[in-house]
Amino acid sequence: MTQDKIILSIETSCDETACSIIKNGKEILSNVVVSQIESHKRFGGVVPEVASRHHVETITLVIDQALSEAGMTPRELSAVAVTEGPGLIGALLVGINAAKAFSFAHDLPLIPVHHIAGHIYANQLEEELEFPLVALIVSGGHTELIYMKDHLSFEVIGETRDDAVGEAYDKVARVIGLPYPGGPHVDRLSAEGEDTFAFPRPYLEPGSYDFSFSGLKSAVINTIHNYKQKGQEVKQEDVARSFQESVVDVLTKKTMDAVQQYEVNHLLVAGGVAANRGLRQSFESSCEKKGLKLSIPQLKFCTDNAAMIGAAAYHLYQKEHFASLDLNGRNFIDIESFAY
Amino acid sequence: MLSLLIDTSNRPLSVAINQNGVTLAEINTTVKKTHSATIMDYIDKIFKMADINKGDIDRIVVANGPGSYTGVRIGVTVAKTLAYALDTELYSVSSLFVIAASSNKEGIVTPLFDARRGNVFGAVYNMKKNEFTEEIVPAYISLEDLKGKLAAYDSPVILLDAQEKFSSSVEEYIHTVPRIGIVEHFEAALVKEEVHTLVPDYLRVSEAERNWMEQNKS
Fold first, then answer.
1. Do A97 and B209 touch (CB under 8 A)?
2. Are residues B33 and B86 in the same domain?
3. Which end of chain A is more exposed for a tag (fewer CB within 10 A), N or C?
4. Which UniProt keywords apply (chain A) (predicted)?
5. A266 is in an annotated binding site
6. Residues B18 and B88 grouped into a single domain
7. Among B15, B16, B8, which residue's Cα sits nearest to residue B33?
8. Is residue B11 domain-shared with residue B49, that is, in the same domain?
């Protein structure tokens, strides 16, 4: 019988201070997330220095709460995991230094985790991953299509060439006059509108799995400006619906093409934008038609959290992918090579 | 009593283990390396050098600013997490006082850190053997204003870490490398802290918040 692996994980790559305790990569013993969103709203986006300041305010509190909610003592832990990157460097450094200090104090192995690997493994908290698989990561900082033939094997088959999809959502939301963060508001309005504007679908060159949302974003902004100049009123709901339809069409088409070409058994969608209802519905119907297994985590595992870091860390533990005390944060890490 | 002391406020880094106020082991550097990568490694090293078990530490003392925002945060994060995990007491000390104490000077001393655009983080202390008075509390101030205030004192000595960009605008200064272990000679400089509430003393709100407050002045 193999011994249970209980990992305390920390995530501070952007504006959530999070700590979680996960057993064997899937059983959640605790999952504490302190969101800073209320503080960043006034700036219309996440301010790195402000995010770093909030992380240091709450870091030991979230660790303490994660342990007490799990009813665990540090002695019962197998390892400490932490997001190494990518992310805001100053924000990452708070989590990394806390993780190093904690692992040093309790003589625990330290596992550095790639943030995107975390988002992918968020799905493992709800069901087993079936390989080979394709994962679509959509968030405020990332838009990537990743092929995995096995655990910890990541091949980036497509990525955004400019804006991340969540970034495009936030900018469009701002132009229509919606508060930050705009994604959920656009999604909500979109349900009440019609696709009347026929914005472009940026498919790029045939066969490419890359994405580009800056042209679409500009098309939306220009349209709104044109209406305003003519003194005409734009129907917010229709702009939201038209923009969302374009985004969802492109994400769905490219992802389903990849699923077909790579002959996968499982499609994962993850990241904050995976909470988008329009996107969920589109993938649910496409996968149902194909008879393909689809996993989209529930909302709390789509946005940044530490449980997903613990889920990925479990496999890294098996591989003994440990860091020494000189671990540093990195704002960019190649996911294809990080676990090797 | 065993103490672990940490200062990563600026480019220099200083860590020490003291026994009853006497330094058993210390590492002090002024090289341009990322504190985030070196701090825990150096702490591990001084425990080995001093031959002390980490579980035997009674208190942790951290320089909690002012200084580089990121630098101060690294020291404070490590200090509060270690104090939490090792269940020790936690104390803070002004990063400017660390310089004052490290200078081994008596009389009026003025440690300064660069705060950009002609401004500094500075304080004025009257240092005596094992005691001191705080003449001007740590502040974010223009270098010119501070020079004006210094005129009131008898032969004040300016302390810089020698890499400060404004060293050419100061007529005379003494190069002082922080040695955090020395602050335990001045118990009155240490402030008892709670682990979960300790935050850096940045002495400045962030630029984004400044701009926001400016725009939202009613």
1. no
2. yes
3. N
4. Acyltransferase, Cytoplasm, Iron, Metal-binding, Transferase, tRNA processing
5. no
6. yes
7. B8
8. yes
Helices A183-190 and A277-290: angle between axes, nearest 10 degrees:
70
CATH 3.40.1390.30 for domain A128-296 = no
Contact B81/A98, CB-based, under 8 Å? yes
Nearest to B206 among A53, A104, A326 (CB): A53
Average pLDDT over residues A54-70: 98
Q: Residues B29, B11: contact at Cβ < 8 Å?
A: no
Give the domain CATH number at B25. 3.30.420.40
Question: CA–CA separation, B218 vs B200, rounded Å?
Answer: 29
In whole angstroms, what separates CA A322 from the centre of its chain?
23
Q: How do residues A152-192 score in pLDDT, each as one tens digit? A: 999 999 999 999 999 999 999 999 889 888 999 999 999 99
Q: Is residue B193 part of a domain?
A: yes
Closest CA to B118 of B146, B152, B160, B150: B146
DSSP string, A12-25: -SSSEEEEEEEETT
Q: Whole-model pTM above 0.90?
A: yes
Domain CATH for B164? 3.30.420.200
Distance separating alpha carbons of residues B59 and B2, to the nearest angstrom: 7
Q: What are the start-end ranges of the E strands in chain A?
A: 6-11, 16-23, 27-35, 79-85, 110-114, 133-138, 143-148, 155-159, 266-270, 293-295
Q: Would you say residue B159 lies in a domain?
A: yes
Per-domain boundaries in chain A: 6-121+303-318, 128-296
Residue pLDDT, tens place only, B32-83: 889 999 999 999 999 999 999 999 999 999 999 999 999 999 999 999 999 9
Place of tokens 């676990």: A339
Spatial separation of the C-alpha atoms in residues A197 and B177, rounded to whole Å: 65
Mean pLDDT of the B125-141 span: 96
Average pLDDT along chain B? 95
Give yes or no on whether A6-121+303-318 and A128-296 have one common fold. Answer: yes
Do B86 and B32 share a structural domain?
yes
Could you tell me which residues of chain A have a Cβ less than 8 Å from any Cβ in chain B?
42-43, 47, 49-50, 52-53, 56-57, 59-61, 63-64, 74, 90, 93-94, 96-98, 100-102, 104-106, 324-329
Range of the domain at B116: 99-175
ipTM, two decimals: 0.97
Closest residue on chain A to B211 (Cα): A43
Interface mutation target, options A82, A100, A102, chain B, most CBs of B under 10 Å: A100
